[in-house]
Amino acid sequence: SDCPVIAIDGPTASGKGTVAALVAANLGYQYLDSGAIYRVLAVAVAKLGLNPEIPANLLQIIAMAANLPVQFQADQVLLGGEDVSDAIRTEVAGVMASRLAVVPEVRNGLLQRQRDFRQMPGLVADGRDMGSVVFPDSVLKVFLTASAQVRAERRVKQIEARGQKADFQIIYNDLVARDKRDSERAVAPLKPCDDALVLDCSNMPIDQVVATIQNWARERI
Ligand code: C5P
């Protein structure tokens, strides 16, 4: 495809979602939040009370993945027409998404849905395996990371900004556990691919991260 893709991968709460959305807006590109697709599936699974550890349920989940009725609108994520924008952002949805993400058939089922976002004039895609699996021909692959301490602090601020209470130690432990699960799984483990540029943004303001990525993009597109 001639349609350029900028892949931004990295661990949870590295800021890649915010950064990817800003880069996409600045370049006038499409934006794919691939984690949101895993999270929508998680919400669909929870709604039906399915347990991925039960083989018959898992088969049903795999079938759902390939036909997930998800729609992304301006500021809304819809599942079968229902607004699930808030439901997908809960910790419970994140943990379920990460459990489903270890299943290769689930990942395959969600592949085409993600590739459909590749439309002119270009795409910025954020996730774990954008550069390695979903868009291996990306013109630019960034692995955006930050220390677990900084990511947990950011997550706490996000939760408190929503007027909810957050316990740093619980958030930190959950984040480290999810990193471990994401990086140790056999399929599409979370790690920079060989041709990725690694950017540690622990001590960088957002606008500097955005500018760095756009400078790299300018050299390639
Ligand atoms: O990025 P986010 O936290 O929204 O993703 C939720 C979960 O979905 C991640 O913890 C990860 O397990 C999974 N995921 C994935 N591959 C992606 C995006 C998300 O495995 N490209």
Summarize the structure in words:
- The chain is α/β, with parallel strands linked by helices and 221 residues long.
- Helix content is 50%, strand content 14%.
- It has ten helices and eight strands.
- The protein has helices at residues 16-27, 34-47, 55-66, 91-100, 104-109, 111-115, 130-134, 148-161, 168-184, 206-220, and strands spanning 5-9, 30-33, 70-72, 77-79, 82-83, 123-127, 140-145, 197-200.
- The strands form two sheets. The chain has a five-stranded parallel sheet with strand order 2-6-1-7-8.
- Helix 2 (34-47) packs across helix 4.
- The longest helix has 17 residues, at 168-184.
- The site of cytidine-5'-monophosphate (C5P) has 14 residues, from helix 2, helix 4 and helix 9.
Secondary-structure map with pairings?
Layout: E1 5-9, H1 16-27, E2 30-33, H2 34-47, H3 55-66, E3 70-72, E4 77-79, E5 82-83, H4 91-100, H5 104-109, H6 111-115, E6 123-127, H7 130-134, E7 140-145, H8 148-161, H9 168-184, E8 197-200, H10 206-220
Parallel strand pairs: 1-6, 1-7, 2-6, 7-8
Antiparallel strand pairs: 3-4, 4-5
Bound molecules: cytidine-5'-monophosphate.
Residues 12, 34-35, 38-39, 94, 97-98, 101, 127-129, 178, 182 line the site of cytidine-5'-monophosphate.
Main location: cytoplasm
Family: Belongs to the cytidylate kinase family. Type 1 subfamily.
Catalytic activity: CMP + ATP = CDP + ADP; dCMP + ATP = dCDP + ADP
